[in-house]
Amino acid sequence: MKNKEKIIIGHQNPDTDSICSTIAYAEFKEKNGEKAIAARCGKLNPETKFVLDYFGVPTPKLISDVYPRVKDTMQQDNLKVVSPDTPLKEVGEILKTEQVKLVSIVNQEKKLLGIITAADLAYNYLEELNINSMRKIPTSLKNIVKTLAGELINKQQNLDSELNGRVFTGAMATETMANYIKAGDIGLLGNRPAAQKAALEAGASCLIITGNLEINKEIEDLAIQKKATLIKVPYDTFTAAKLIGMSIPISQVMRSEVKSFYPEELIADIKEEIIHFKHRTYPVINHQNKLLGLISAQNLINLQRKELILVDHNEKSQAVEGIEAANIIEIIDHHRLGDLETLEPILVRNQPVGSTATIIAKLYLQSSIELNKKIAGLLLAAILSDTVIFRSPTCTELDKKIANKLAQKTDLDSQEFGKEIFKAGSVVNKLEPKEMILNDFKEYAFDSQKIGVGQIEVMDLAEFKKHQPKTLTALHELKEEENYQHLFLMVTDILNEGSLLLFDKAATNLVTAAFTAPQNETSIYLADTMSRKKQVIPSLSTSLIKE
Which long-range contacts (CB under 8 A, 24 or more apart) does 509-513 make? Predict the structure, then answer.
């Protein structure tokens, strides 16, 4: 669906290309009339933060996983709520006319107090039919007047006053009726002045005169004297007797012990509960008990997967957690094809260029959609970062050509701006060894073997060598903790266009087979090597497959 929101997201441990390309493509989609949000599944590295701050662009939304949650499917429209003093009759009318399955009862702060369903009201009605004698009606004067469309005769009475007496119908002889009345009772009578007088004398707190019949002045005066209430209603006595039971506040019959769910809960965790519970619709609340929505079994049946557009990756191990529960609709990348599968054919833009940003910038330039200065700057920064200021062997003439157009649009010098980016992004003196390894880290699967390769860029390799012993220790610890077959760190010397490759001792034979350069026990310097994707991974994969 074109108007369904699409989540545009890069890989785990996102780099500058991943983040900037995500932001640029989300804006491209929005300007093309589609709903899209830029997202990330990891924290920003110092380099990327510098770039976003430089152009004054906010950080994309952090999404830790794309598993469907309650908030993704809960019903928020047509949510019916009432206060606890609402009459049963009014709630019943809501259930009928609005064709909803549940009405929620909330207080003034919208905190959930209870719920009522049509089945609950039906059960309450059947209970009423089982009553064989006068019963108490705990309600308010206001609710009786409202439910019976009545007119309050003695206006001095407080509408909020509570009535707790038994209800009786004055259909028997006056003398007999008086024997049944107790103080505080509520009477339903027609145009029978003698019976009305007897009821008031016996202590009735409220008389409901049916049929819209006139009330004698003598009765009005006596009601005032006895501090009783007089109400005139348009219904006949039989109908009024049925309706008065519907005047009690919903708080008297609501279910206050309610199964509810939080918006953050995973659908997979609650699905069985909803399917096997007695009811089919349940409130969704926050941790302050405030009502947010409803969720039902039908919502689970109609559950739609989140739609994702993957940027700068196409391997499951690099993707946001829960990718298997989402619907991948598009991929924009410049890496080798990975192991992701889709439910149906999708649009894939995969080009052998130095940066995903090059592909996205080309889309802008070939369309009528405006490429503003901020987006142009982000795309330029991404190209400079991924191609190591055009020094990487992955860099193509198309990268250079498009970067030149972006530089003209932003009035930036590519070489000088690139050096600023890498200087700001140097993590050697900013991060702990483990954080440094994982700062720009990618995982690869080869048959049953899993390896990880981190990469950092430095302007001075000698500066890094002070940290090399601690980094090797951290490399070994990470390998054991995360159960990698092998773990590597590329320390790329930008100015000299080479890389120092660190590895665990168990990878010595693998490195020997993959590279011909002289090596130490846990490191090897690879001249003219700057690309993890094009120069290191292919050699390692070939040797791994031969093992």
Answer: 510/486, 510/540, 510/543, 510/544, 510/547, 513/543, 513/546
**Stated pTM of the model:** 0.70
Stated as kind and residue range, the H or E segment containing 270 is helix 267-276
- Reported as a single tens digit per residue, the pLDDT across 51-108 is 999 999 999 999 999 999 999 999 988 889 999 999 999 999 999 898 888 999 999 9
Torsional sign, CA 267, 270, 273, 277: negative
Q: Whole-angstrom Cα distance, residue 467 to residue 117?
A: 67
For β-strands 327-333 and 347-350, DSSP reports them as: parallel
What is the DSSP secondary structure assignment for residue 104, as one 8-state letter? E
81 touches 284 (CB < 8 A): no
Strand ranges inside 30-117, DSSP E: 36-40, 61-62, 81-82, 102-106, 112-117
**CB contact set of 516 (below 8 Å; sequence gap of 6+):** none
Q: Closest by alpha carbon to 364, among 340, 382, 346, 352? A: 382
- What is the C-alpha to C-alpha distance for residues 133 and 15, in angstroms, rounded to an integer? 78
Query: How do the domains of the chain map onto residue ranges?
Result: 6-68+305-425, 72-124+252-301, 150-232, 433-546
Bridge partners of 206, per DSSP, are: 186, 229
The number of angstroms, rounded, from the C-alpha of 108 to the middle of its chain's C-alpha atoms is 25
3-state helix, strand, coil in the chain (%, to 5): 40, 20, 40
Q: How many CB atoms lie within 10 A of CB 540?
A: 24
Give per-residue pLDDT as tens, 136-148. Answer: 778 889 999 999 9
- SS3 per residue for 419-459: HHHHHHHCCCCCCCHHHHHHHCEEEEEECCEEEEEEEEEEC
Do residues 58 and 52 touch, judged by C-beta distance below 8 A?
yes
> Can you tell me the distance from the alpha carbon of 467 to that of 472, in angstroms, rounded to the nearest whole number?
9
Sheet of strand 229-232, all strands in order from the earlier edge strand to the far edge: 151-152, 229-232, 206-209, 186-189, 167-169
Q: How far apart are CA 205 and CA 18, in angstroms?
A: 76
CATH of domain 433-546: 3.10.310.20
Give the model confidence (pLDDT) of 342-379 as tens digits: 889 999 999 999 999 999 999 999 999 999 999 999 99
Hey, what CATH topology would domain 150-232 get? Answer: 3.40.1390
Q: Are strands 229-232 and 151-152 parallel, antiparallel or unpaired?
A: antiparallel
Buried b (16+ CB within 10 A) or exposed e, 359-393: bbbbbbeeeebebeebbbbbbbbbbbbbbbbbbbb
Tokens of 214: 């006139």
CATH homologous superfamily of 72-124+252-301 equals CBS-domain (3.10.580.10)
Provide the phi-psi class of 211: left if phi over 0, else alpha when psi is between -120 and 50, else beta.
left
Tokens of 351: 């080009």
At the fourth CATH level, which superfamily is domain 6-68+305-425?
inorganic pyrophosphatase (n-terminal core) (3.90.1640.10)
Closest residue by Cα to residue 338 from 360, 312, 357, 364 = 312
